[in-house]
Design a protein that fits this description.
The complex is a heterodimer of chains A (about 260) and B (about 300).
Chain A (H helix, E strand, L loop, with lengths): L3 E12 L2 E6 L11 E6 L3 E6 L5 E5 L3 H7 L6 E8 L11 E7 L3 H14 L2 E8 L8 H7 L1 E6 L6 E2 L2 H5 L9 E5 L2 H13 L6 E4 L15 E2 L4 E2 L6 E3 L21
Helix pairs in contact in A: 2-3
Chain B lengths: L1 E3 L2 E3 L3 E3 L8 H9 L4 E3 L16 E3 L4 E3 L7 H15 L4 E5 L4 H11 L6 E5 L10 H4 L2 H14 L4 E5 L6 H10 L4 E4 L3 E3 L16 E4 L4 H14 L4 E4 L5 H10 L1 E6 L9 H15 L11 H4 L2
Parallel strand pairs in B: 3-4, 3-14, 4-7, 7-8, 8-9, 9-10, 10-13, 13-14
Antiparallel strand pairs in B: 1-2, 5-6, 6-12, 11-12
Helix pairs in contact in B: 1-2, 2-3, 3-5, 5-6, 6-7, 7-8, 8-9
The chains are: A alpha/beta (about 260), B alpha/beta (about 300).
Chain lengths: ~260, ~300
């Protein structure tokens, strides 16, 4: 597909470094955890997940995201997608645990709301560096039980999401879905793997995408050559055992970083 | 089993360069999915990030790309090539590029410790300044580069040709004179797409190359002409996504086919096409694929 032109209708500042950009078009076929390629014309095109069917939440981290932050209501960008595989959708009476770190809450919050509507019990552990970096806390709270952690203790429990995970009974949950910095997800994976629960867990991964449609191979992971853009970006923990996950990834040239 | 430029292939489907070829693991995966051989991403002398995104989009009629030859350099790619060689039982062909014969040689020699089964010289990328088609449109340069690499390596050398020339046969003949063991035709066809909401060219590089079904008739004609003119094998590539396409390409004169963009429809495409070719040969009383290579030249 060619990029679809969307006009920015509203910009919400979620945290000092993070904004949500709402569009005039809604991608209603998107499943939580799928992504779109957001084209900032003349700059770059980057993968983004959808916290609403008509919005992307962006953390300012590089050239493309900085260029996006320079845009105003009325400006337009191009969107391709939704692409890839999202999270398994919660069913009635299922007990679901979500673990979100920073802007990783973006693909999980529509999952929480889907779960609530479907009649599942949703518990979220939401972590951030500090209180003002907590994103979508109100939406998670409205969808079920919410545990908050901040690195600096400015809100909720001081520490990491894994501190809460270590204290809860993992066996109570039918499924555990997580998205956040890879170092956080790798620690979550470690805890779940030790508990033998990694096969019930789904991880939303980030890699450098070029084509976004499963052809070029730039985002392939070791050792099975799984494409994050097409076979993922959400993977069952079973597929990540003894993989590059948490160890290394490849940059734009393909060199390991 | 077929023999192609001295290499043994379990079937005539080959993963094309630039597709699922950045990592050793993805090359092994394509081999496991049924590819008779795999070609790596094109590798150069220095690490290259490539063009900014969008670098590939799907159009109504095919795929448009301008990746810009991203690669980790031969030094960075050695471990990937070793992984591919150790992990797969099919021939692994290293695609290489350079700005001149010396740079091609440096890359070929740099990758040789990983023992690629053959080299494919990329003199046909349509959108990288100073590389690819910038040199692949000049028969003298193609002959010189081919000769330099053939003289220095002891494995087969294939030369991948660009269709963006007046006469592809002249370039194919130059490769043959230079000592190439086979030619691969075709690379992508120069193309662009424009975003009508704003007038922006969609690709980060503005223009690029078209692949997919739209270019198959172009590839069939190029393969047909090369087969008629050359003594070395022609490997057909361009828009093959089903066994019928592969059979057509072989009848035009291809000894084997490469498959690229079609992996977007599923990585099982190699096995599906190989099985389809076998079934076609069986049903039509051929004992092997050689029975139909160049058939289109014989029937009229």
């Amino acid at each position: 597909m060619r990029p679809i032109n969307v006009t920015i209708t509203k910009i919400v500042e979620e945290s000092p470094s993070t904004r949500t950009f709402f569009f005039d078009k809604s991608f209603d076929s998107a499943k939580p955890g799928q992504f779109v390629m957001a084209w900032i014309r003349g700059v770059d095109e980057i993968p983004m997940t959808l916290p609403y069917n008509n919005a992307i939440t962006v953390q300012k981290v590089g050239d493309a995201t900085s260029a996006l932050f320079d845009l105003d209501v009325g400006d337009s960008i191009g969107i391709r997608g939704p692409f890839g595989n999202g999270f398994t959708l919660p069913q009635k009476n299922e007990n679901i645990l979500l673990i979100a770190g920073g802007v990783g809450s973006a693909p999980l919050v529509p999952l929480a709301e889907y779960g609530m509507r479907a009649g599942s019990d949703v518990t979220t552990i939401l972590g951030a560096r500090s209180a003002d970096e907590l994103i979508f806390a109100d939406r998670f709270r409205a969808a079920g039980v919410l545990h908050i952690t901040t690195d600096d203790g400015s809100e909720g429990r001081g520490g990491f999401v894994t501190d809460v995970l270590n204290e809860i009974d993992i066996s109570e949950y039918d499924r555990i879905c997580t998205c956040g910095p890879e170092i956080m997800m790798a620690r979550v994976f470690g805890i779940l793997h030790d508990a033998g629960a990694h096969g019930q867990a789904e991880f939303s991964l980030h890699r450098y995408f070029k084509c976004g449609i499963g052809v070029c191979g730039a985002c392939c992971m070791d050792p099975h050559g799984l494409r994050v853009c097409k076979d993922g970006p959400v993977f069952n923990g079973e597929l990540l055992v003894d993989s590059e996950f948490g160890e290394y990834k490849r940059g734009g040239s393909g060199v390991r970083v | 089993m077929i023999t192609l430029t001295g290499l043994k292939l379990k079937n005539p489907t080959i993963l094309a360069a630039g597709i699922m070829g950045t990592t050793g693991a993805s090359l092994v995966r394509m081999a496991n999915e049924g590819a008779g051989a795999v070609v790596t991403k094109s590798i150069g002398a220095e690490p290259k990030e490539g063009h900014p995104n969008p670098s590939m989009i799907q159009l109504e009629c095919g795929f448009l790309n301008a990746m810009g030859l991203p690669n980790p350099s031969y030094d960075g790619f050695l471990q990937e090539l070793e992984f591919a060689k150790n992990g797969s039982s099919v021939p692994v062909i290293a695609s290489i590029f350079g700005g001149d014969a010396d740079e091609f040689l440096r890359v070929a020699e740099g990758l040789s410790p990983a023992k690629p089964d053959a080299f494919e010289l990329n003199v046909s990328c349509p959108h990288a300044e100073g590389y690819g088609a910038m040199i692949g449109t000049d028969p003298y340069v193609v002959e010189e580069i081919t000769r330099a690499v053939c003289d220095s390596v002891d494995v087969p050398v294939w030369v991948k040709l660009t269709p963006n020339v007046t006469d592809i046969v002249a370039i194919g003949e130059a490769a043959e004179r230079g000592g190439a063991d086979g030619v691969v035709a075709i690379n992508t066809v120069r193309a662009m797409a424009i975003d009508i909401a704003t007038g922006y060219p969609i690709l980060g590089n503005r223009f690029g190359g078209l692949s997919g079904s739209a270019i198959r008739p172009i590839a069939v004609k190029c393969v047909y002409d090369l087969y008629a003119a050359l003594d070395i094998p022609v490997i057909g590539v361009g828009g093959v996504s089903g066994w019928q396409d592969a059979v057509e390409m072989i009848m035009a004169g291809a000894s084997a086919v490469q498959i690229g963009s079609a992996v977007s429809g599923g990585v099982g495409v190699f096995g599906t096409i190989a099985d389809g070719i076998d079934k076609y040969l069986d049903e039509n009383g051929y004992t092997g694929v050689e029975g139909i290579i160049g058939l289109a030249h014989e029937v009229i």
